[in-house]
Amino acid sequence: MGLLSGIIGNKRAVEVLTRMMNNDSLPHALLFVGQDHIGKTTVAHELIRKVLCHKGALASHPDYIELKREVDEKTGKRKANISVKQVREVVSMLSMTSMSGGCKVVFIEEAHRLSISGVSALLKTLEEPRGKMLFILRTPSVDSVPATVASRCQTIRFSIVSKEEMVDGLLRTGIGKVDAQEASSHAMGRPGLAKRFIKDSDYRARVETSEAKAKEFFQSNIARRLAMVMELIPKGELDAAGELKKIVSEWQGVCRDALLDRLGCESLVMKRGTLARLSAQEILERLERISQVRNAIAHNINPHLALEHIAL
């Protein structure tokens, strides 16, 4: 059993980190890169437990510091960025003597959310740490953090996990074969979503309903598609942009599978079910429109206009 045993997928990342631990060559700053739900946080927490020699909840360890966006008391939502005040508080804590006499660990779960001032406040400590400490920064891509931050870290890349590897990993945790296969199909290479699909019945129900609506949407006539836009994101929805992102991601998966099925690549299909009424060319056109919307989400596109663009 390795130092990071039980992790599903990302063998390369786990091997590199395990070798560093075994050789006592772990750098003071690691940048974990990859899309959401593929294991970055799971690996980070497991690695931190090994470094701190701690088996319990990390929050209970005196030398563990987690830096993340604060919740706005007025709105109940997380703030847009990690503030410079938060960073300065962490830097101040790092200047103190370790409570356990060992290493201090800082986990920044959304490094790309650091404010510009926050980055500036962190750089000196990141470049010249005082005493034994470890920074783990989690982010979607190297380009999503300033080059000054990335250059001070060793990058560890995470990638999606194959369906076969996902099923095997879930089976090893005691999950039944049927549930493991269904969860892996849903997760599309993301172990975190597979585990949530199995453990959270409400989430599972929402996913199944969403997939059914996606198939209905693409196989309905244009009048029905336009009518469904308002059903999918009601006018009163507070997080319309977040809902748009979820819908577009789901629709892309449904269309991808339908296209692969049309092309005779059944072994690559992640989920079951096809869009029987659409030709391969029609599915490609819908995928192109979905891609256009995904690229526009970062520019605050109107969610309803975005869905209408796909509907047309």
Would you tell me which CATH topology of the largest domain applies? Rossmann fold
Question: What is the string of SSEs from the N terminus onward?
Answer: HEHEHEHEHEHHHHHHHH
**Residue windows where pLDDT falls under 50 for at least 5 positions:** none
The description of the largest β-sheet is:
5 strands, parallel
**The CATH C-level class name of the largest domain:** Alpha Beta
Count the beta strands. Answer: 5
As a whole number of angstroms, the C-alpha radius of gyration is 22 Å
**Widest beta sheet: strand line-up:** 2-3-4-1-5
Helix content: 40-55%
Number of domains: 2
Q: What is the architecture of the largest domain at the second tier of CATH?
A: 3-Layer(aba) Sandwich
CATH homologous superfamily identity of the largest domain: P-loop containing nucleotide triphosphate hydrolases
Which class do the helix and strand fractions yield?
alpha/beta
Q: Strand content of the residues, in percent?
A: 5-15%
Report the mean per-residue pLDDT as an integer.
90
Gap between N and C termini: 54 Å
Secondary structure elements and their pairing?
Blueprint: H1 11-22, E1 29-33, H2 40-52, E2 64-67, H3 84-94, E3 104-108, H4 116-127, E4 133-139, H5 147-150, E5 154-157, H6 163-172, H7 177-187, H8 191-199, H9 201-219, H10 222-232, H11 240-262, H12 280-297, H13 303-311
Parallel strand pairs: 1-4, 1-5, 2-3, 3-4
Helix pairs in contact: 3-4, 6-7, 7-8, 8-9, 9-11, 10-13, 11-12, 11-13, 12-13
